[in-house]
């Protein structure tokens, strides 16, 4: 009986470690707004599924770059990008034009992509954080 209880406790702990971070109501609302921004400004290059276009536009889905380079990702959305980056082991060197988004739109779309297609950040990108990013 003790072994069975121990097994239950261990398996419960392992399962709880693999669940997605809880999303606050504020984050959920931002993600919903960000989906609309994504549809209008980002989907044509990064595709509806966030997988991008091989060798041209990097994937946002399951993106190690997004998860490891938060500030650089916000900067790219806010100001565009013209340097080579590596995403999931693949180099990309296509220019991304500045989209002309307001800081709240940048925050919302970042929250959407950081919590979609296998990305599970859970930490909200705020307007204050975006406003501190400089070119």
Structure description:
The chain has 135 residues and is mostly helical. The protein has seven helices and two strands; from the N terminus they run H-H-H-H-H-E-E-H-H. The chain has helices at 2-17, 25-41, 43-46, 64-68, 70-79, 103-113, 127-131; strands at 85-87, 90-92. Strand 1 (85-87) and strand 2 (90-92) form a beta hairpin. Helix 2 (25-41) crosses helix 6 and helix 5 crosses helix 6. The protein starts with a helix and ends with a helix. The relative contact order is 0.18.
Quick take:
This protein has 135 residues and is mostly helical. The chain contains seven helices and two strands, in the order H-H-H-H-H-E-E-H-H.
Would you report the number of β strands?
A: 2
* Structural class by helix and strand composition: mainly alpha
Assign an overall shape: globular
* Total domains: 1
Might you state the CATH topology name? Cytochrome Bc1 Complex, Chain D, domain 2
Strand adjacency order, main sheet: 1-2
| Overall CATH architecture | Orthogonal Bundle
Q: Superfamily at the CATH H level? A: Cytochrome c-like domain
Gyration radius, rounded: 18 Å
Distance between the termini: 62 Å
The major sheet is characterized as: 2 strands, antiparallel
Portion of residues in beta strands equals under 5%
């Amino acid at each position: 009986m003790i072994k069975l209880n121990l097994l239950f406790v261990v398996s419960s702990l392992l399962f709880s470690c693999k669940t997605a971070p809880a999303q606050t109501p504020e984050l959920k609302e931002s993600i919903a707004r960000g989906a609309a921004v994504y549809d209008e400004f980002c989907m044509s290059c990064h595709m509806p599924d966030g997988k991008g276009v091989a060798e041209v536009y990097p994937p946002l889905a399951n993106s190690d770059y997004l998860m490891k380079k938060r500030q650089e990702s916000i900067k790219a959305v806010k100001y565009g990008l013209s340097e080579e980056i590596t995403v999931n082991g693949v180099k990309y060197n296509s220019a991304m034009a500045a989209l002309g988004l307001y800081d709240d739109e940048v925050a919302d779309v970042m929250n959407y992509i950081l919590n979609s297609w296998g990305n599970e950040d859970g930490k909200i990108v705020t307007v204050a954080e975006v406003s501190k990013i400089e070119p």
